[in-house]
C-alpha cells in the first residue's frame, strides 16, 4: 500500500530551517531589530511534530485503499508577523523593530514562497484524528523548548 502525506509546515525542537529557526537566529545576532522577508501577511498552517506522527500512523492503520492521499496539518493559520511577535515574547525581548522587505509577487517572502496555505484535513478527521495543537501553540511549544536563562538559544 502507498500512503502519500501532504503536510503543512511541521515544527519541533530539532528544526534547523524555516521561519522560527531563522527568527531566533537573527534575534540572537541582533536583539533590537528583526528583518522579515515579505510583507508579514503570509499565512501558513503549522503542525507540531507529534501531531504529524500521530496523523501519519493513524492513516497507515485505518487506510483501506492501495493508494491513499492525506493532508496533514492544523485547522488554522498564523501569519509571519504574529510568528515574529511570538518569538520576541518567548525570548523576553522588548522594543524590537520589525522591518519588512516587502517581498515579491504581492508580499511573498521570496520567489516560490506560498502566500497562503491551509490544507483540508477532513479526511484524517473522518478517521478520528485531530491535532492537539493549533498553529500558534505549535510555534510557542518550539520556542518554549528552546528557552534558556538568557532567552532562546539556536536550535541545534
Structural description of this entry:
33% of the residues lie in helices and 22% in strands. The protein is an alpha/beta fold. The chain has a single domain, classed as Alpha-Beta Complex (UDP-galactose 4-epimerase, domain 1), CATH 3.90.25. The longest helix is centred in the middle third of the chain and has 14 residues, at 49-62.
Instruction: Report the radius of gyration as a whole number of Å.
Output: 17 Å
Question: Distance between termini?
Answer: 35 Å
Count the DSSP helices.
5
Low-confidence residue ranges: 148-152
What's the helical proportion of residues? 25-40%
Gross CATH architecture? Alpha-Beta Complex
How much beta, percentage-wise?
15-25%
**How does the overall form come out from the CA principal axes?**
elongated
Order of helices and strands: EEHEEEHEEHEHHEE
Structural class: alpha/beta
CATH homologous superfamily? UDP-galactose 4-epimerase, domain 1
The averaged pLDDT comes out at 88
User: Going across the major beta sheet, what is the strand order?
Assistant: 1-6
E-strand count: 10
Question: Tell me about the biggest sheet?
Answer: 2 strands, parallel
Number of domains: 1
CATH fold-level topology? UDP-galactose 4-epimerase, domain 1
CATH uppermost class = Alpha Beta
Chain-wise SSE layout:
Blueprint: E1 2-7, E2 9-11, H1 19-29, E3 33-36, E4 43-44, E5 46-48, H2 49-62, E6 67-72, E7 78-79, H3 80-90, E8 97-100, H4 122-126, H5 135-145, E9 147-148, E10 151-152
Parallel strand pairs: 1-6, 2-5, 3-8
Antiparallel strand pairs: 4-7, 9-10
Helix pairs in contact: 1-3, 3-5
